[in-house]
Write a sequence for this structure.
């Protein structure tokens, strides 16, 4: 109870302090006003201008700072825009690449299917050819066996030349006329002369010269095969050009010439 009575009887100093603060503020304003009124007009104007200049400078600096900040933001925005364009270009390129890859994949799958079909067709063809080849080999073996079992054809019959009585007393030198040329039966072995080489052949020329020199006792007898008539006409004309007497005997067939009838007994 004593404490409560003491609190009720205590005095608050707040109104006094507030009055004192107000009084100090009024005195400060009066001091500032007296100071300003006592200053010369030029000095006061200069001071005001300096304050204005400082404020303007501050505003300009602030504006410049804002401009620089704005330019920095613009530069950053430009970099972001370029990066965005590059990202878009890369994305477009990736999309095109992906599209090309998908198209290439589809084409590859189509080509693979086509190649597989061709391979299957070729395998079928190879299988068929293998079967046909086996049949052909079998047929060839049978034909070879058949040919082996067959008898060789008989050789062509010899063509025996028989004297006809003409040119009796003359010693003949036989010259065969066939489709390819002449064959001179003189010496150890017969000598074949092609049709195109007869005019320039030295052995035929020497024969004609010898028979011409021995015309009274010797003669050239042409043995004319069925396919050698043209050869005979040419050879006979060459012999006549060289003054070699000549005659002819038929040689029917294509067998070996047999001159045994003209050999001395």
């Amino acid at each position: 109870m004593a404490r409560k009575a003491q609190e009720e009887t205590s005095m608050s100093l707040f109104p006094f302090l507030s009055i004192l603060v107000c009084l100090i503020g009024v005195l400060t304003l009066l001091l500032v006003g007296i100071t300003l009124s006592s200053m010369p007009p030029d000095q006061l104007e200069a001071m005001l201008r300096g304050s204005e200049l400082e404020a303007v400078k501050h505003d300009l600096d602030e504006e410049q700072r804002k401009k620089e900040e704005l330019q920095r933001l613009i530069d950053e925005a430009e970099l972001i825009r370029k990066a965005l364009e590059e990202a878009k270009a890369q994305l477009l390129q990736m999309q095109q690449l992906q599209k090309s890859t998908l198209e290439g994949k589809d084409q590859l799958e189509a080509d693979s299917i086509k190649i597989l079909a061709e391979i299957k067709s070729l395998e079928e063809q190879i299988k068929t050819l293998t079967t046909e080849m086996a049949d052909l080999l079998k047929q060839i073996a049978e034909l070879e066996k058949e040919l082996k079992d067959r008898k060789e054809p008989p050789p062509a019959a010899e063509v025996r030349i028989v004297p006809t009585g003409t040119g009796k007393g003359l010693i003949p030198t036989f010259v065969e006329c066939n489709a390819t040329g002449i064959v001179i039966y003189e010496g150890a072995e017969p000598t074949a002369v092609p049709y195109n080489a007869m005019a320039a052949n030295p052995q035929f020329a020497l024969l004609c010269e010898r028979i011409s020199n021995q015309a009274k006792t010797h003669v050239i007898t042409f043995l004319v095969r069925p396919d050698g008539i043209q050869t005979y006409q040419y050879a006979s004309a060459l012999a006549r050009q060289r003054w070699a007497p000549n005659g002819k005997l038929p040689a029917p067939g294509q067998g070996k010439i047999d001159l045994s009838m003209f050999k001395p007994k």
Notes: The CA atoms of residues 223 and 249 lie 5 Å apart. The chain has a mean pLDDT of 78. Strands lie at 159-160, 171-177, 181-185, 191-194, 218-224, 246-250, 257-258.
